[in-house]
Amino acid sequence: MTTDDRIRLHWYLPSSGETRQFRQGGTNVVLPDRDSAGPGGFRAPTLSYLTEIALAVEEAGCTSVLVPTGSSCEDPWIVSSVLLAHTRTLRFLVALHPRTQHPLLTAHHAATFQRLAGHGRLALNVVTGEPGWEARRYGDHGDKAAQYARTEEFLRIVRPLLAGETVDHTGKYFATRDASVTAPGRDLPAKPPEIWFGGSSEYARPVAARHADVYLSWLEPLDMIMEKIKWLAEALPEGRPAPRFGLRAWLLSRDTAEQAFADAERHLAGIDPAHAARARALLGARDSVGQARGQSLLEGAGIEDLDSLHVAPNLWGGFGLLAGGSALAFVGSHAEVADRLEEYRDIGVSEFILSGFPNLEEAHWLSDGLAPELRRRGLLATG
């Protein structure tokens, strides 16, 4: 088995904090005050807590951490830069919105990070987002077509800048003249940081096909992911190699399947069905094709019928009742979850960005159980 045939694990960093009370949404929650989390409390995204998570997943064998972006998160560039000094090999997948940064500023940040961090410890997750309150905070009142048009223009500028080229550009959303991030004595690494990109709409497909090094999808059943891989391949420009494929998912992996599903169902214990219904309504109203695809898998499912949350073997939908992002989780014994990851690997998925609830505890389960199981099978890439 070659390195390219192996699985690379990545982790999600809760940079706006998290709580042990899943009724609040779990990871990256926004609470009015620290005490509103109720029993279990709120874990602020302090340097010490984020460092604990980063060191735990580095020890487990994760290739990188995804550092999210958004007005509720701590700034991903600053978080990544600080954690760089506390880790040895961990890479940082820095998320960014084209609506919040000029391409030259992004390329400048990336160039500085690479020069100080050393080669290979940076990748960029370019997030288009969706219309709504978060976009309006940054003065973005465009529809999805406009947002993806801005992203495509952003990438047309930033990719050559990251490669050390000088760029002149005048477009609808950005303009720059004689832009460059190279200077005497400050050359760029030979290989630019990878571009990771997600989006399930028809607006996203051509952007991903032209620019993504890694295409990201929320976790879906195997047949849906196979269709999505084909959907993207059909849009590739002639001669451009297909991007690698990645999945973003929740994880709950235990020594036995019985323990895993008991722990999963315990997260839902005591949740008021009316509260769950309100959360589902908010999730269903989002202008996101990826979110809609995930929520469609839970149609008719609910906390009143726990069996309804079993979407496919070891794919569980309980997290998707209350939290945004992936509607599904890998849940089961370490061996079962490794089986599922291997199945996705066999259809072309090589990157898995995982997160747990809470993240620190699940990172230890990863380190003690799932990662060793993948190593025993020769499936886990080391870089």
From TrEMBL:
Domain Luciferase-like: 41-350
The name this protein goes by in its record: LLM class flavin-dependent oxidoreductase
CDD domains found in the cross-reference section: Alkanesulfonate_monoxygenase
A Pfam family this chain is assigned to: Bac_luciferase
SUPFAM superfamilies in UniProt: Bacterial luciferase-like
Transcription regulation found in the keyword field: no
Keywords noted in UniProt: Flavoprotein, FMN, Monooxygenase, Oxidoreductase
Keyword Oxidoreductase: yes
